[in-house]
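Can anyone check this?
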Amino acid sequence: MTRTSLKEFNCSLAQAAEVIGDKWTLLILREAFFGTTSFSEFRKNLGVAKTVLSDRLQSLVDHGVLERAPTRPGVDRYTYRLTAAGRDFFPTLITLMQWSDKWVFGPGSEPFCVMDKETMSPVQQVGVQARDGHFLTPRETTFGPGPGANEETREALVSLKPGNRAL
């Protein structure tokens, strides 16, 4: 199946989806945060086809989310480790897991929870916070053009008046 490219979209979410927006990619990143580093470990833990895994790992390396290093000189085996860009995905991964825990599994049915290593207590729900630290609801936010917005994006944002949004 051919995937439609989102590279032409002047949109941060579209570009993130271009890099991360695939079920196997998300699960590979989860495994990387769990400490998985080798192709065989990823394959065993996920049950994913070799070709799919190879493609997704290469894409994550190409996009700077994972780095690949030989296990030892002269051997055609590699380890995969999160880069700074990969580690920065951690809050997003936790947000997706918490959303699924609430809306797919339901409270009390979570497969596992993220814990503070020091206190062994569950982490707080991830959310959007104002600069003063209080959490914001969608109704308390708006979207405006960023420094990289092109003319098409600026025009699209004009139609996002707070009264017109379905939030």
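Reply from J.R.: I decoded it. The CA atoms of residues 139 and 167 lie 6 Å apart.
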